[in-house]
Amino acid sequence: MAQVVIGVRQSSKSIVNLYQSMMNKAGKKPITAEKALLRVASLCATSEQAESDIHAKLLKWGIAPGDAQAIIARLKKEDYLNEERYARAYCRDKFRFNGWGRIKIAFMLRSKGVNTSCIDRVTAEIDDKAYRATLEKLLKAKWREVQDKDLRQARASMMRFATGRGFEPEVFYPMISTIAQKTVQPQ
After folding, report:
1. Residue 153: pLDDT band by 50, 70, 90 thresholds?
2. Which of 45, 101, 140, 154 lies at a CB distance of 3.0 to 4.6 Å from 166, suitable for a disulfide?
């Protein structure tokens, strides 16, 4: 990194330019705050985004931290960014398409800086019947992979699998027992 000498009478505009040039990779021309606002507004209009992801993207583009906060405040004011809406969409998609349980969804939302009360509300919205049906489908598929192992190893493998997917032990323990018993003792 180049050595920087800051003069006594350096203006705040040149400090911002210096910051942008330091943050800029591979000699690309830095974008202005106005262009960055248009880009992230377009991004937020096409899909729900987390505030932390937008903030990181703005900093990566070389936008000063103060300007990034101002852009985020404007996006929130104009309802491009909405934490509750993002959390609801994230929860719905990760459950439906990735087969994640409530624990993993909550953990990942927390890592993106979403409010805990918001996380609790959106994870509680998952239909319990669909939740159990998804878990059962996943466990049956996993059972087909591990059924040739020793029963104890197969059950342990399924428990690790369900835990890794973020399902609660009180939900998956009885299901694993039921699936294992049906296979071991066909009725």
Report:
1. very high
2. 101
